[in-house]
């Protein structure tokens, strides 16, 4: 579920970025705001350039948000609480990274070169939609609605994939220190008398 939703979210961001570029630089909407003197066809390599850069950034943002959710879920939080904790853990990083990239790409929107302007706009608008609408609004909402089914993995695939335990949850459960304290949750210290 997670990789499918992440990919569909990227496609939504990609289409939004292409739609924004076509509306402004090809159809002439808001041309006075963006300094478009003569609307015309967009560059033929813009979609290829956009898909490469936007996919990389979208998956980075997904990793920041999704890994926090997975870590919380692996450490015993309910699936819906894990969504909240994952968004809390990753929102500052995703927001900061997105603002930086929007600023960098947005700087090209008012370039002197008419070929650079649509590229800058497409990347800035694509990052804006992906980070703030898709990754921090739609993905958490879908993960919340899916509940435990979001983390379901077919048994045949689970047998094939290596169990690398990035979150360290199985290590915490097996560690003798956790058993010696007598605490059911290794993250919570045992009460001393």
Task: Please outline what is shown here.
This protein is mainly alpha-helical and 193 residues long.
- Summed over residues and divided by their number, the pLDDT gives a mean of 85
Beta-strand segment tally: 0
Helix content: 55-70%
Coarse shape: elongated
Cα-to-Cα separation, first versus last residue: 46 Å
Low-pLDDT segments, ≥5 res: none
Rg from C-alpha positions? 22 Å
Keywords:
193 residues; mainly alpha; elongated
SSE layout and pairing:
Elements: H1 2-26, H2 31-34, H3 46-74, H4 79-106, H5 116-146, H6 155-160, H7 169-174, H8 176-181
Helix pairs in contact: 1-3, 1-5, 3-4, 3-5, 4-5
Q: What does this protein look like?
A:
The protein is mainly alpha-helical. It has one domain (2-37, 45-152). The chain contains 8 helices and no strands. It has helices at residues 2-26, 31-34, 46-74, 79-106, 116-146, 155-160, 169-174, 176-181. Helix 1 packs antiparallel against helix 5 and helix 3 runs parallel beside helix 5. It is elongated and about 65 Å long. The model has no long low-confidence stretch (mean pLDDT 85).
């Amino acid at each position: 579920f997670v990789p499918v939703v992440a990919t569909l979210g990227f496609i939504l961001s990609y289409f939004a970025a292409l739609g924004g570029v076509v509306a402004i630089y090809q159809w002439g909407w808001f041309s006075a705001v963006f300094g478009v003197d003569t609307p015309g066809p967009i560059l033929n390599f813009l979609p290829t350039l956009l898909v490469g850069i936007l996919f990389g950034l979208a998956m980075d943002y997904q990793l920041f948000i999704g890994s926090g959710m997975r870590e919380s879920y692996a450490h015993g939080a309910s699936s819906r609480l894990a969504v909240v904790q994952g968004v809390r853990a990753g929102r500052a990083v995703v927001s900061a990274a997105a603002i930086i990239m929007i600023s960098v790409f947005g700087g090209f929107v008012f370039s002197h070169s008419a070929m650079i302007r649509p590229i800058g706009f497409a990347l800035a608008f694509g990052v804006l939609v992906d980070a703030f609408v898709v990754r921090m609004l739609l993905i958490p909402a879908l993960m919340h609605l899916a509940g435990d089914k979001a983390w379901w993995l077919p048994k045949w695939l689970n047998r094939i994939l290596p169990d690398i335990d990035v979150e360290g949850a199985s290590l915490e459960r097996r560690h003798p220190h956790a058993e010696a304290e007598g605490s059911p949750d290794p993250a919570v210290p045992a009460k001393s008398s």
